[in-house]
Amino acid sequence: MLKISGLNAWYGESHVLHGVDFEVREGEVVTLLGRNGAGKTTTMKSIMGLVPRREGSIAYKGAETIRMASNKIARAGIAICPEERGIFGSLSVTENMMLPPIVAPGGLDLDTIYTLFPNLKERASTSQGTKLSGGEQQMLAIARILRTGAKMLLLDEPTEGLAPVIVQQIGRTIREIKNRGFTVLLVEQNFRFAATVADRHYVMDHGVVIDMIPNHALEANMDKLHDYLGV
Amino acid sequence: MFTILGIPGPLLFGQLLLGLINGAFYAMLSLGLAVIFGMLNIINFAHGALFMMGAFVSWMLLEYVGIGYFPALILAPLIVGIFGLVLERTIVSRLYKLDHIYGLLLTFGLALVIEGLFRNGYGSSGMPYRIPAALQGATDLGFMFMPNYRGWVVLAAVVVCFLTWLIIEKTSLGATLRAATENAPMVQAFGVNVPRMISLTYAGGVALAAFAGVLAAPIYSVNPNMGSSFINTVFAVVVIGGMGSILGSILTGFGLGIVEGLTKVFYPQASATVVFLVMVIVLLARPRGLFGKAV
């Protein structure tokens, strides 16, 4: 579904990714684990075309996207829920929800989305998207990309800074959208949470992927993982 | 004859109407500036010249092709809007990565070039544009006689301003525009062709200026300087209303026109400076402008 090879990326003069290689198969939930500054978010942004300078190969369904503008990548069927959530304060909650254009058939309809996120339905009339709580903003940021028909979802630290009960709800949501056939690439700091949703884990450090651990082998590799993540 | 505060009623209402007319042009022009600034982050100094082009194109349509006022109300904004689109694609778009000041300098230069070309071609004395037959004459409102054309200008400006506000605040296209003003890369990453939207926004703002130009043609003579005489006040309006605020531009435009009109009645000596006086006071008390969001 998504195959990344030799990905390099730069912010201005600083060289952030140094040849990232990994792949995500259709229907999988895959996480990128790693310390702060390992290059996880930059990898996500590179896939979405949001990094000004990138080289190497990012193939989605066999088509090369490395030279595409981000709107073309979105139209190919990839959607991002960014780390900073990207909720617009000048738009109401409903406008935020309806903002991303439909890129393909097969997205979830609003009723299904409101079943997954009942609190969003209650807050639908809120005049400013940024007036929602952190958890509600996170759910809105996930919910609005489920509408678009994009089948490859990039979720960048969706649990960051949220209360345990909200984290659980997001975990349920990720398992639910996997069951519905979505493919998810997830950036996480919290590998205990990642273990509850993911099929495989890639570990990043200093701008490269250094290891891959299948979820069932996570327990056996705990020492190694602690070493990688420095926890 | 009745008087209000010692001022003859017809004089007061006459100046109020004149103020309202000027306010209508301030509102339409500052609205276009606000839309363009929100999206492109460029202070479009060429706005006055494009307003003048709107008047000139309607005059040319009548003079050379025999196309009258009402079709020109649609055609001239379209023609000048396309001109704006070409300007944006070929020249203005090269500056988005640079500081604000470059956009200001470039569009100021463009204004000088455009005005210079028209002055070279048509002189600066100005050409008359007749009020269309359907809008000639005046209506007795009881307290004053209102020239029909002036009433039409105010009405048309209110409708156009309201429609623009409606599109931006209440439609999904407007929601996308507002979102792109806030965070363009994010909106593009959802699949919106943001560069194309920016070009069309510039063209839309320019078309709004040209529409105002057509409305202005029968009131002021059509001449190359008509834009620059307006634009200084319009920039003051934008500053007072708050950069980038849609509703603020409209209300401040009409409001300052009226303030100017009233000043002409009560203290004519200050009528040319009152807008700038208001600007100074507003900037001292509320630097972001009356309707501007906190920075």
**Structure class of chain B:** mainly alpha
Shape of chain A: globular
Question: What is the structural class of chain A?
Answer: alpha/beta
Give the integer mean of the pLDDT values of chain A: 94
Radius of gyration of chain B: 19 Å
Overview features:
heterodimer; A: 231 residues; alpha/beta; Rossmann fold; 6-stranded mixed β-sheet; 9 helices; 10 strands; B: 295 residues; mainly alpha; two-stranded antiparallel ribbon; 10 helices; 4 strands; 71% helix
Quick summary:
The complex is a heterodimer of chains A (231) and B (295). Chain A has 231 residues and is of the alpha/beta class.
Task: Please give the structural blueprint.
The complex is a heterodimer of chains A (231) and B (295).
Chain A lengths: L1 E10 L2 E11 L4 E6 L5 H9 L4 E8 L2 E2 L5 H7 L1 E4 L11 H6 L11 H7 L1 H5 L11 H13 L5 E5 L7 H16 L3 E6 L2 H7 L2 E6 L2 E7 L7 H8 L2
Parallel strand pairs in A: 3-8, 3-9, 6-7, 7-8
Antiparallel strand pairs in A: 1-2, 1-4, 4-5, 9-10
Chain B lengths: L2 E2 L2 E2 H32 L6 H19 L3 H22 L9 H23 L15 E3 L4 E3 H23 L1 H18 L4 H23 L9 H16 L4 H21 L7 H12 L10
Helix pairs in contact in B: 1-5, 1-7, 1-8, 1-9, 2-3, 2-4, 2-7, 2-8, 3-7, 5-6, 5-7, 8-9, 8-10
Could you please describe the fold and organization of this structure?
The complex is a heterodimer of chains A (231) and B (295). Chain A has 231 residues and is α/β, with parallel strands linked by helices. Chain A is built from 9 helices and 10 strands. Chain A has helices spanning 40-48, 70-76, 93-98, 110-116, 118-122, 134-146, 164-179, 191-197, 222-229, and strands at 2-11, 14-24, 29-34, 53-60, 63-64, 78-81, 152-156, 183-188, 200-205, 208-214. Chain A has a 6-stranded mixed β-sheet with strand order 6-7-8-3-9-10, sandwiched between helices. Chain A has a 4-stranded antiparallel β-sheet with strand order 2-1-4-5, with helices on one face. In chain A, β4 and β5 (63-64) form a beta hairpin. In chain B, the strands form 2 sheets. A two-stranded antiparallel sheet of chain B has the order 1-2. Chain B has one domain (11-124, 131-285): ABC transporter involved in vitamin B12 uptake, BtuC. Chain B has 295 residues and is mainly alpha-helical. In chain B, a hairpin with a 2-residue loop joins β1 and β2. Chain B contains 10 helices and 4 strands, in the order ββααααββαααααα. Chain B is 71% helix and 3% strand. In chain B, α2 (47-65) packs across α3 and α5 runs antiparallel to α7. The chains are: A alpha/beta (231), B mainly alpha (295).
